Amino acid sequence: MNTRMAALIGSGLTLALLGYTLILYPSLPDRIPTHWNVHGQVDGYGSKIGVAFFGPALAALFTVLMLLLPWLSPMNFKVDSFRETFNYLFLIVTGRFSAMHLLMLQAALHPGLDVGRAILSSVFLFLALMGNVLGKVRRNFWVGVRTPWTLASERVWESTHRLAAKLLALAGLFGAVGVWSGLPVWLCLAALTGALFAPVFYSLYLYKQGEQEEPGS
Length: 217
Known about the structure:
Strand order of the largest sheet: 1-2
Number of strands: 2
Number of domains: 2
């Protein structure tokens, strides 16, 4: 997706979120649920004015960052070679937090509504969508598995991200389906934790392996 289209979508999403929030605002209670535990129970609240407009502000921020961060990238770490993927990642991040905002508003308006499972499954689905394109991400300072070893070596970066893409997509899909099918939440989270940490250790392994293979090492 080119940058112009991505900026239009991000801006449109921000305005739609703001408009919807303004429509609901008079009906919202003074306290809005902001956090749910792994059992889907509300364990955190925020003030009406703070929470109601935080979502649209965050969507606007991510749209601005999508345009600003490529300009801030230092030489040899530009995002031009994968700009469409970069734009896509920022849009799904924007969409993820927008969905979270909408669910919080609905939970505030309908206290008996069980949105905990929807929120948790949306997190897994977001990570699956991210994993689907992670293998296309090239070395940069903003997105991806940014360890000292991936940033130091293009070879390590590419190999690590091929692994991370597969693991994150699989763990995300497993978690999204598992939450709705009644699997224990801890099992879904364990799969996700493994998918997140395995690439980190793999990048270290690849880098040290490369050091040993260098002549004179």
